[in-house]
Structures are given as C-alpha cells and as structure tokens.
Amino acid sequence: MSDLMSEAVSLMAVGMGFVFVFLAILVGVTTLMSKLVNKYAPAPEPKVSAAAPQMNATSNDAQLLAVLSAAVEKYRSDHKK
Fold first, then answer.
1. DSSP letter assigned to residue 50
2. How confident is the model over 38-75, as pLDDT tens digits?
3. How far apart are CA 19 and CA 5, in angstroms?
4. Measured between alpha carbons, how far is 81 from 75 in angstroms, rounded to an integer?
5. What b/e readout covers 20-41, taking b as 16+ CB neighbours within 10 angstroms?
6. pTM reported for the whole predicted model
C-alpha cells in the first residue's frame, strides 16, 4: 500500500507541476502578446467634436431616466398585491 501511495503522490506532483508550468508559460505569452499589440497596433483615438458628446449624452440620459422610471413603476405596481 505504501508503494501505491508513493506512486500516487509522485503522479500528483508531476501533474501539478505540469499545470503550474503551463499556466506560467500562458501568463508570459499573454503578457508578451499584449505588449506587442500595444506597441504595433495602438488603439485609435476617437475623433469627435466637442459639442456632439454633450448633446448625445444629455439625450441618452433623459431616455435612460424615462426607461428606468417606467421599469420601477411597473415593478412597484406588480408587487403591491
């Protein structure tokens, strides 16, 4: 039984070691790819006029407020019973 347990422990150590090495390599490769992508293909800067975001944000906020208010009213009316 002792021989079987030692084989099980060694198999477990090899398996855990393999997983650890694989994950370390995966983290390294992912970090390297991220650096390469940021170096050779940086994110494009948005080109918007200064007035457009303010007008769009205001109309979106008003519409969002209306939708949320309607949802709250429906929830309250359904759960008052």
1. S
2. 888 877 887 766 555 555 667 788 888 888 999 999 88
3. 21
4. 11
5. eeeeeeeeeeeeeeeeeeeeee
6. 0.49
